[in-house]
């Protein structure tokens, strides 16, 4: 106890006190009233006080060893002793004069040592107490009571070194006291220990699963005496633990597609409770894997996947790049979707159960084949070229146009929705297909084709024949099927056509004197060929429309005509049984000599072109004027009359006689068949020009016959001699012979 003096243990023999005289100042020897032990390591001594003593020296001796303790008054206690040991106790009084002799000894034995307890709570309603054997102990007493004083105390006496208290309150702090007693029933030191029972398993465990975070919130009712709690979620492969001092805890990092057993254990300084009855927690299924996407020819997407643990059903979401989304709900592992060409679909598969939706797995994007350019049109540009156009289609990055026939394939690649196929064979049926390509999906091989025929081949003109003046026939090589040929003659005069499905045709009514360029084309439902090479064609020159014959003299006739289109030179001919007169000239007139008077002529003209083409032109017949009479003579018929006599060229010719003088002009017209004519009352003494000409049918007078000049005198029989006269006409020169008048 506090204030107890210090003790010292000496390991030496006690001195032998001599019987010498003690100083009169030393105190008296004290007398021990009693010595006893309450603690296993000390003995308490009681004595009567000694006058004059200021302190006392207590000595406890055990064999050769002793322990001394100085105290000031009674009682005094010697400590540091061994338990269950018999000691001899003496006491001395002390003052300033010294110490007294030892008192008569008393024997006292220390009580038993307290058992050192080892305490635990093996269950929530029990406490186990154990200890080691205590020296000289015959038995033990152990008592237990709630530390808060509630309830009754439990006490057990035993000779064993352990015992268990049961039916205790869980999580409650108990005070345990134990001591040993010897064979005399003397109790030894006691040992006190506070022990709490372990907590009871928590009740009303609730598990709330968060599917989005794969976490579980576990909660429970608080348990008496529990300081902390542990939540354990375990499956076959993994154990997750959460510790807390509250009544709820979050268990993170749960795995999808797993089934956990969740239980809670309460803890305090005594130990842990039993686990609660496990709560079964089934997490959300994992995202389906092994997703495959297949597209068949009918535009159906087949999405399939592998099944997942605890997946009750599946939902497939398919969202196209235009924002439209569809889904499929199934308990199987595949779904069918209608797809369109040229779209990119974003596909995700979720599994579901009562816990919720699986996490988002891989999002697959699937691009369908680009659409086909099925509305393409082919336009014939030429016999060997087709221009193919179409509307742009969804998903296509490039296009390939293929034109196939029995000889091979012609390809055209472009990013534009148009392509020109050249170097094709004319008049050939091609199977044309427009394929669309994308870098992701490649080509759409299901595109439909069309048969398109190229335009006919150009015909080759082999021959042109002139069947008549304005009729020509063309012949060509027919090298097309079901083609119609159109031949065109083109010139300054205009266009002329003929059409045939064979290999020849005829153009009529071509104008004369024209130059044409003749070409042919072939036309079919596929289109029109390029024109053939042109062949020049020249029609014969035109016959002059107007032709005029003017008799200049009896042997010379002037022929003039209008210009004949296309003619460069002309050949005119007057022909009769008596002979022919011909003239070849560049002009549009000609003088023909050697004409026989009174003769019927046929008139013909040939118009000759620069290249030598000739047109034979026939005109109305021409009759030369009747011959002038010969032997014209004058005879006097009295004083004032004259007879003009001549020799007729033909018997039935009628003649006109004209006399021209200064005193007047005179005319007579005898009856047909006569060869003379009488003029009366003609003045004499004048010079007359006498002309005898054949009469024309129209009553016109010819100026072709020669004039004879006569002098008519008024006396004698001779009228005078004619004189040679030269007559000048505008077109020719006529010489009049000498004429005598009898």
UniProtKB/TrEMBL annotation:
Coiled coil: none annotated. Pfam families: fn3 (PF00041). InterPro entries: FN3_dom, FN3_sf, Ig-like_fold. Residues 26-113, 114-200, 201-286, 287-371, 455-542 form the Fibronectin type-III domain. This is Fibronectin type III domain containing 7.
